[in-house]
Amino acid sequence: MLTLASYLLISALVVTTIWFVWQWWRIERARREGTARVPRPADGAIGFVTNFFDTLGIGSFAPTTAIFKIFGRMPDEKIPGTLNVGHALPTLLMAVIFIGLVQVEPVTLVGMIVAAVAGAWMGAGVIARLPRRAIQIGMGIALLIASLLFVANNLQWLPGGGDALGLSGIPLVGAIAINFVLGALMTLGVGLYAPCLMLVSLLGMNPLAAFPIMMGSCAFLMPIGGIRFVRTERYDLRASLGLAIGGIPGVLIAAFIVKSLPIDWLRWLVAVVVAYTALLMLWSVRPRVVVAQGNA
Predict the structure, then answer these.
(1) Does the pLDDT at position 68 exceed 70?
(2) What sign for the dihedral angle of Cα 104, 105, 109, 112?
(3) Is 89 in contact with 250 (CB distance < 8 Å)?
């Protein structure tokens, strides 16, 4: 049985989806003709696979970043924007599904979502203006942290959580403040899922309650932050379209057909690949020594 808060959130998600698609189309339509706008099949495949496993709780940002970086799909400074724009529509769909399925106390759910959106709005304005080196360093450090969280989760070091479906008092204020920071980090390409799940569990909530919180947070913040990347052209249009087009069927299949898989081995693979990508990102910013050769 859906609560009034769930109905309102789902309605707001529908409105956000319409707004995001309209704004994205309007901005790109006004740009110069001749720009390649047809997504590559490989981008659609990446969107399908990453969003399929995202729906099952793996997360999509870290694996997508790893693929883009390892294969040199785009300049590093365009990766955060491409993630936020391309994964926005599949995540909106995920949020509608999980907010409808899992009940969370309304003040906790809405408060944490609004905080994440506010953080993303502020973060996108900063990240969109940062130089490549700063983004490479930030993403490298963030990916290392993400890989450690994957390892901790695989080894069951993270707290198991409790039975609560909501928070109050100081724990609620703390959760809202931390989700604000996590929303800002999303615009740097850092996934919110693992840290949000850890936060919810540490505060004694049922880990299942993290799904509508983290998916709802991402669903609202990614379109809002993503449009700022679209306006500044700090993203790859073709890759974003591919992620969106491939991601939507990936979400539907995972949510309504597959529902669950034994994916412990995949979590270890993601941890290794993300750690490798972090080191690769940090290696990219190393000082390059140029030896000047004089005339003999």
Answers:
(1) yes
(2) negative
(3) no
pTM: 0.79
Question: Max alpha carbon distance in the chain (Å)?
Answer: 83
C-alpha to C-alpha distance for 155 and 53, rounded to whole angstroms: 19
The rounded distance, in Å, linking the Cα atoms of 254 and 243 is 16
Burial tier of 136 (Cβ tally within 10 Å: 0-12, 13-18, 19+):
buried
pLDDT digits (tens, 9 = 90+) for 183-201: 887 777 677 777 787 788 7
- 263 DSSP 8-state letter: -
SS3 of 265, please?
A: helix
How many residues can be counted in the chain? Answer: 296
Q: Which residues of 58-81 are buried (b: 16+ CB within 10 A; e: fewer)?
A: bbbbbbbbbbbbeeebbebbbbbb
Residue given tokens 């003040």 in the structure block: 107
